[in-house]
Amino acid sequence: RCRFTHPLMLGSGVHTTGIPHPAIVPHSGKQEMEHYERNMKPQPEPKREKEAKKPTIKKPLNAFMLYMKEMRAKVIAECTLKESAAINQILGRRWHALSREEQAKYYELARKERQLHMQLYPGWSARDNY
């Protein structure tokens, strides 16, 4: 049995706070530690009454997102892939393979979408969602 006692330790290897010190736990302290660890698990917070949430206003889509939205179904049909990550990789490669002129179509759509978003939600900031 360990005889070391720290000035802040009680005789049985327990700190004055009542918490057993992990390095100074008596042999019979295993059960005490299990009890201690069980009690230290975070308790779920009581459910709050449902707060009326403001509707979330999403950011306008950028050129690449508009391209993905348009082309996703085509890629899925061609590749028979179901994994979103693999589909996104293919779409990314195809986006980079497009010429500037082909990409310009989507940049113009994105510009129009931003303008419409600014008209619908003046003073909106992406920070509003966070």
From TrEMBL:
PROSITE patterns: HMG_BOX_2. CDD domains: HMG-box_TCF7-like. One of its GO terms (cellular component) is chromatin. GO terms for biological process: canonical Wnt signaling pathway. Residues 33-55 are annotated as: Disordered. InterPro entries: HMG_box_dom (IPR009071), HMG_box_dom_sf (IPR036910), TCF/LEF (IPR024940). Residues 33-54 have a biased composition (Basic and acidic residues). Residues 57-125 form the HMG box domain. It is found in: Nucleus. It comes from the Eukaryota. The keyword tRNA processing does not apply. The gene is Tcf7. Gene3D superfamilies: High mobility group box domain (1.10.30.10). Residues 57-125 bind DNA. GO terms for molecular function: DNA-binding transcription factor activity, RNA polymerase II-specific; RNA polymerase II cis-regulatory region sequence-specific DNA binding. It comes from Psilopogon haemacephalus (coppersmith barbet). This is TCF7 factor. Belongs to the TCF/LEF family. Keywords: Activator, DNA-binding, Nucleus, Transcription, Transcription regulation, Wnt signaling pathway.
